[in-house]
Amino acid sequence: GENVEQHPSTLSVQEGDSAVIKCTYSDSASNYFPWYKQELGKGPQLIIDIRSNVGEKKDQRIAVTLNKTAKHFSLHITETQPEDSAVYFCAASIGYSTLTFGKGTMLLVSP
Amino acid sequence: GAVVSQHPSWVICKSGTSVKIECRSLDFQATTMFWYRQFPKQSLMLMATSNEGSKATYEQGVEKDKFLINHASLTLSTLTVTSAHPEDSSFYICSAREPRDSYEQYFGPGTRLTVT
Questions:
Q1: Which of B31, B47, B105 best probes binding to A when mutated, by most A CB atoms within 10 angstroms?
Q2: Closest by CA position to A49, among listed B106, B45, B23, B24
């Protein structure tokens, strides 16, 4: 089955800096890659996603890039703010199949 | 749009009792709903996939007789933890997917279950 590796497990940045979280997947048939933000005690919130027919997608301060050849995708957050502090999960799926999640990255943004 | 709710948000029960958790899609119809379990500082573990009007598909290692899932309508799925034990204490989260051509899953806020 699919395996998703996520790095780093913890990321500390200063407010205003950029943050990058990377994920790799094992199944070349995977074609959907969402990113979720989870705050303490809450459910995951979909923040951005990308399909395999696109190499990059951007939404304000958040962007996701996908390299199908290398089977990795990354989340980029620019101009980080303290409210960006949370756990971020990447995931992968083949179409409508179930999502396989990475282990998560705790992002800490210091003021 | 795409709002999913869960009830209750937290519950404490005694060992041996059963607990029901509801998951509702508030502004869309969900043909498919998913139930996850999450331990502290860990990732989400898929327990089962439920499709409206049919039996749930459980992941390997998940006891179907212990975690009863019912998806009776396009907006409601329930998870019943039967004969709960302390090791069942966890954060249970549901998600729902719209029936249109969409891969997105929208998650509920989660239910914290504590079994004493």
A1: B105
A2: B106
